[in-house]
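Researcher: Please predict.
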Amino acid sequence: MKKILSIVLLAGLMLMMLTACEGEKAFIGKWTINEISAGDITMTSEDIRDMGLDAGFVKMQKSGKAVINLLGDESEGTWEMNEDGTGVVISYGDDQTGNVTLEEKELTFVDSQGSVYKATRF
């Protein structure tokens, strides 16, 4: 009986480890920003292009490195899964951090000032 319980626990542990890795993989890649919200103002990528700007992107690499481009202001940094495994924390620029979540196929990046950037995979 102990042997069967040990096998079941080991299988469960292995499954949890695989699930954690899969969670990280979902965030890896280049995400093109298509909507920016700051306070009560929301701009689509079309609105931003009309102003002569590029909305930017969020890029997360398998190595843990990240590149953040917000309206042409580009910074390098690092990323890691948050403590509860539901999202990612990106450290970039001059001691700035941002939180990233993924719902369906849309990535949401919230910067340190509270601006919200919605992006889809490039």
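Model: The longest strand covers residues 29-38.
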